[in-house]
Amino acid sequence: MKTALAQLNYHIGNIKYNTDKIINAINKAKAEKLDLIVFSELSICGYSPLDMLENEDFIIDCELAIKQIAKQTDGIAAIVGAPTINKNTKGKNLYNSAIFIANRKIIKTINKTLLPTYDIFDEYRHFEPNDIFEIVEYNNKKIAITICEDLWDEQRSFGNFSKEMLYKNSPLEYLSKFNPDFVVNISASPFSYNQADVRKEILVNNAKKYSTPILYINQTGANTDLIFDGGSLVINKNGQPIVEANYFDEDYKVIDLNFLNNIKTLPSDITNKYADIYSALVLGVRDYFKKSGFTKAVLGLSGGIDSALCLAIAVGALGSENVDVLLMPTAYSSSHSVDDAIDMALRCGVKYHVINIEKLRIEFETTLSDLFVGTKTGITEENIQARLRGSILMAFSNKFGHIVLNTSNKSEAAVGYSTMYGDMNGAISVIGDVYKTDVYKLSEYINKYIADIIPQNTIKKAPSAELRPDQKDNDSLPEYEILDKILYAYIESRLPFEEIVKIVGDKETVSFVLKLVNNSEYKRFQSPPILRISSKSFGFGRRMPIVAKF
Questions:
Q1: Are residues 499 and 371 both part of a single domain?
Q2: What CATH number does the domain containing 84 carry?
């Protein structure tokens, strides 16, 4: 049975666009005289449409699209992901389904059993879990169709306070009783640099355990904060990968399932964490603009490492002709920071505009002087500078239609080292899920492997917000090497206080950092969407009550 894995980039809610892509791929497979073509989870509507699933007309449009696709399947079969209506009188309105279509007819609809409700997933909000297990027979082959999480029954959740198995049921255990010839897993599995190996391991373990080949079809592209890396796989019954699709790009792989045992296994790949993060962030920015209908971006370029990295990513995603930068120095901005920012702008080939805000800063403080009489100058006055910059960026955005990119990193967002309505401005946060220590390493990767565009002085100098004389980040925070270890242990690994102290060896520092994190929830609640590249990013994937006592 000759089969194609169609790894495509879908647009949430753009059902006509998605349908056209699916039909084009089907026509290509028909021209190649293939037997079957497989698409990813919820490919009709994109993953995840969230509360769009509550609109009846949206579901009707999905149903009409399936019928339109079915008309194109003369002489071929296709597996397409779509929401379908639960016709039972009890339960949720919908199923998350894989629809098997052949010769212009819907042959069978297989529904998802395991509905994740952790991290960025909230599928049980809309979907009813499956409780009927059956296979599809086609061209003398028995096919076990599963949907994404259905193969993740034996995963372990992150952190000490977790279970070895998240689910009571194992769909593949039920399906294996039918002795399928192969398993199809249609998926919408988002990228996470610290879970990429886990995903492949789960697929390999399932193939070994049930001695059955697995065809895993993921999607690629980004939808707001979620980035899908593709990497669709074919794994033989021994758990050996034999076909692998591209990462962070569309792909189309053909395999003859009758000759799986004759295909050589792929060599073990050595992934580069920073190469993957760079590719993910470029894809995230590019698709955010393309799918939102925007073309131009603007950001504040300070001469520091964070804004320099964001500019490098923006140029990689949008092209230098579509990015403007604003340099907004005050009396506290060092001359080398301005020089470094100009150097960076020239290296990237972007338009730069120098707007000295010193007069505005003085005027602002003068205006507030009567109100602030008898008080000491401090963080309030520092934040005025950040808010002036934020206002100027928004004015540029309004006037010229450029979308503001937020340049804050994850370490800053975690401890609240940012100014609301100032440097927290932006439509999308480019590196809000990248720790400061990784900001440096990612910058070095870009210079070495992409283009030497980030000035060495920007990389080497001590980080500073430059909001007061001789200010350094470590005046207020632990060194980033220590800070990021604490943050990763607390946020990603979810370790208890005493365990984190064992890692760092300094109880007072850990207590200080965790207090900053917990006291900054109200700030993060007002942050822009953050491009997710880890297993636990701020935003929808980490929901904490603002007024809680930690």
A1: no
A2: 3.60.110.10
Which residues make beta-bridge pairs with 229? 220
Count of domains for the chain = 3
More confident residue, 471 or 412: 412
Q: Per the residue annotation, which of 41, 123, 149, 466 is the catalytic one?
A: 41
pLDDT reported for residue 334: 73
The pLDDT of residue 370 is above 90: yes
Q: Verify that 219 and 331 share a domain, yes or no.
A: no
Residue 445 CA neighbour count, 13 Å, CB half:
16
pLDDT tens column, 439-481: 999 999 999 999 999 999 999 988 776 666 766 777 789 999 9
Residue 542, in any domain of the structure: no
Catalytic position from the list 2, 21, 108, 112:
112
CATH number of 287's domain: 3.40.50.620
Q: Kindly state whether residue 418 falls inside one of the protein's structural domains.
A: yes
- Give yes or no: 148 in active site: yes
Task: State the chain's mean pLDDT as an integer.
Answer: 93
Compute the half-sphere exposure of residue 172: CA atoms within 13 Å on the CB side of its CA: 26
300 and 230 within one domain: no
Catalytic residue among 45, 62, 148, 310: 148
Residues 352 and 447 in one domain: yes
Same domain, 402 and 363: yes
442, 537, 234, 3: CA torsion to nearest 10 = -110
Residues 6+ apart with CB under 8 A from 63: 82, 84, 85
Catalytic, 41? Answer yes
Q: Is 448 a catalytic residue?
A: no
In this prediction, residue 157 has a pLDDT band, given cuts at 50, 70 and 90, of: low
Q: How many residues does the chain have?
A: 550
* pLDDT attached to residue 464: 73
Spatial distance between the Cα atoms of 226 and 77, rounded to a whole number of angstroms: 30
The residue type found at 358 is: E
Query: What is the model's pLDDT at position 156?
Result: 58
DSSP code per residue over 342-400: HHHHHHHT-EEEE---HHHHHHHHHHHTTTTTT---SHHHHHHHHHHHHHHHHHHHHHH
C-alpha span between 155 and 119 (Å, rounded): 14
Tokens of 426: 């932006």
Which domain range does residue 514 map to? 478-519
Quote the pLDDT of residue 161: 57
Amino acid 197: pLDDT: 85
Q: What is the distance between the alpha carbons of residues 16 and 515, in angstroms, rounded to a whole number?
A: 48
Same-domain check for residues 202 and 280: no
Segment 536-540 shows an average pLDDT of 93
- 367 pLDDT above the threshold of 80: yes
Residue 412 belongs to a domain: yes
Q: Which helix (H) or strand (E) holds 182?
A: strand 182-186
280: amino acid identity, one letter = A
**78 shares a domain with 34:** yes
Whether residue 59 is predicted with pLDDT greater than 80 in this model: the reply is: yes
| Look-up of token digits 């045992």 | 261
Judge if 458 and 487 occupy the same domain: no
Residue after which a domain boundary falls, among 226, 250, 271: 271
What's the whole-number mean pLDDT along residues 180-190? 97
